[in-house]
Design brief:
Elements: E1 10-11, H1 13-19, E2 25-29, E3 32-36, E4 42-46, H2 48-53, E5 60-61, H3 64-67, H4 82-91, E6 99-103, H5 109-120, E7 126-129, H6 132-138, E8 165-166, H7 168-175, E9 180-184, H8 188-191, E10 204-205, E11 209-210, H9 227-235, E12 246-250, H10 257-266, E13 272-275, H11 278-282, E14 290-291
Parallel strand pairs: 1-7, 2-5, 2-6, 6-7, 8-13, 9-11, 9-12, 12-13
Antiparallel strand pairs: 3-4, 10-14
Helix pairs in contact: 5-10
Length: 294
């Protein structure tokens, strides 16, 4: 079994349990809930109440929509400006010298979305808790219901790295580039246009392939597949480890897409990015190519 090229991007529950008292550690619950609406869409709701009901001792809560998205953006999870992002995470205690561990309940994508933004703004000392809150609870580890997060404000230097968070123009260019692959991280029925949930038009972006975020995780405990397993999943859609091609991932709002790009980062692939507003933007613009089956 091969190892990840960047194993530092994942931490295990036993490691975190042993390092909770490390003064440089910053642990955050990043969960958001998506609630089905009556119009075939999903509504985003804060999971702060769940955090208050139980969290990893000392951890804080990061609200992706309220704290780490552009308040002036048309779409709910649009990446904020570098200076606004730096101010927001600095206020929560994330500084240039911090070691950050992120987790979420249910979908790992809430944690990987925050991880990807940190990474896109030049910060590489963040990790995902492998298996997340579910694995921590399953192992009967310590849980706090107290307001016990004591991270002092810190200075965070945000420098946007080009190509990691892109717009629709970059996706259009990639579709015409033989050295690029556009990947849908949503479920296959959404990609094929057979799901009742969609973002204005059902289906996927014309010319894209599909690798659902959930396919990159173990069924039993929600941990990421090992390096061999991840490599096989990407190979099945024409992406080989170490390839030179550009990979752009999308989903409904730029969240699930980060599971695919995070997995590529684990494998050492450094030419991947996400389409920030994804189908929330693309599907509503009938000038952009889209068809059932992608």
């Amino acid at each position: 079994m091969s190892s990840y090229a960047r194993p530092e991007f994942l931490v295990e529950t036993d490691w975190l349990a042993d390092h909770l008292d490390d003064p440089n550690i910053r642990v955050f619950d990043c969960t958001t809930h998506l609630v089905p609406g009556s119009d075939h869409t999903l509504r985003a709701e804060s999971a702060l109440a769940d955090y208050r009901a139980g969290h990893i001792p000392g951890a804080g809560y990061l609200d992706l929509q309220a704290e780490l998205s552009d308040p002036a953006g048309t779409f709910r999870f649009t990446t904020p400006r570098a200076e606004d992002f730096a101010a927001a995470v600095g206020a929560r205690g994330i500084g240039d010298d911090s070691r950050v561990v992120l987790y979420s309940t249910g979908a790992v994508s809430w944690a990987t979305r925050v991880w990807w933004m940190l990474y896109a703004f030049g910060f590489e000392n963040a990790a995902i808790l492998n298996g997340g809150w579910q694995k921590w609870q399953a192992e009967a580890r310590a849980v706090s219901e107290e307001d016990d997060c004591r991270y002092a404000p810190a200075s965070f230097s945000a420098q946007a790295r080009p190509g990691l968070i892109v717009d629709s123009g970059a996706v259009l260019a990639a579709l015409d580039d033989r050295d690029a692959v556009v990947v849908n991280a949503l479920a296959r029925d959404q990609h094929e246009g057979t799901s009742e949930r969609h973002y204005g038009r059902p289906g996927g972006i014309t010319g894209s392939v599909c690798l659902p975020a959930l396919d990159l995780l173990n069924d039993g405990d929600g941990r990421f597949l090992d390096a061999d397993g991840l490599g096989q999943k990407f190979a099945q859609i024409g992406i080989s480890v170490g390839m030179e091609e550009k990979v752009l991932a999308y989903c409904g709002g730029g969240v699930a897409a980060t599971v695919d790009t995070f997995a590529l980062a684990l494998l050492g692939h450094d030419n991947a990015g996400i389409y920030d507003n994804s189908l929330s933007e693309w599907a509503k613009n009938h000038d952009l190519p889209m068809r059932e089956g992608g």
